[in-house]
Amino acid sequence: MTPGLLADRLGLTAAGTTIVLNRLEKLGYVSRSLHPTDRRRVIVLATDLAARRLSELVAPVLDQGRAMLLNHYTAAEIALIVGFLTRADEIQQAHLNRMRELDPYRR
């Protein structure tokens, strides 16, 4: 992913994203390399260290979530919940896209 795309997805400025990426790179969590088809651009990649650390942090949450949540609902109830959350996400994404198009300097 390019730093510009990452900035857009995170809702950060280019400068803010650069600061974050510099810190993450210093810690060994990301690396930057030239874009494979456009040598003028840079792409950011998560390192193996980042993947291991994320796994250490997230795996217990996912395991506990499965044990505590999924085991308490039937397949039909889970399907209903997934449908609800999917539609809620679609609504939020539509409004997020709408807000991105608004002029922040409009009074």
Could you give a short description of this structure?
One of its GO terms (molecular function) is DNA-binding transcription factor activity. This protein has helices spanning 3-10, 14-27, 48-68, 75-101; strands spanning 30-34, 42-46. The chain has 107 residues and is mainly alpha-helical.
Supply the key terms:
107 residues, mainly alpha, Arc Repressor Mutant, subunit A, two-stranded antiparallel ribbon, 4 helices, 2 strands, WH-like_DNA-bd_sf
Task: Describe the protein's topology.
Elements: H1 3-10, H2 14-27, E1 30-34, E2 42-46, H3 48-68, H4 75-101
Antiparallel strand pairs: 1-2
InterPro entries: HTH_MarR-typ, MarR/SlyA-like, WH-like_DNA-bd_sf, WH_DNA-bd_sf
Domain HTH marR-type: 1-90
Protein name: MarR family protein
Neighbour order of strands in the largest sheet: 1-2
Can you identify the CATH class of the domain at 1-56? Mainly Alpha
Which regions have little confidence, pLDDT < 50, spanning 5+ residues?
none
CATH architecture of the domain at 1-56: Orthogonal Bundle
N- to C-terminal distance: 34 Å
What order do the SSEs take from the amino end to the carboxyl end, as H and E?
HHEEHH
CATH topology heading of the domain at 1-56: Arc Repressor Mutant, subunit A
**On the 0-100 scale, what is the average pLDDT?**
91
Q: Describe the biggest sheet?
A: 2 strands, antiparallel
From the alpha carbons, calculate the radius of gyration and give it in angstroms: 19 Å
Task: Give the overall shape.
Answer: flat
Helical fraction: 55-70%
Q: What is the CATH homologous superfamily assignment of the domain at 1-56?
A: Winged helix-like DNA-binding domain superfamily/Winged helix DNA-binding domain
* Number of beta strands: 2
Pfam families: MarR_2 (PF12802)
GO molecular function: DNA-binding transcription factor activity
Organism: Mycolicibacterium cosmeticum
Domain HTH marR-type: 1-90
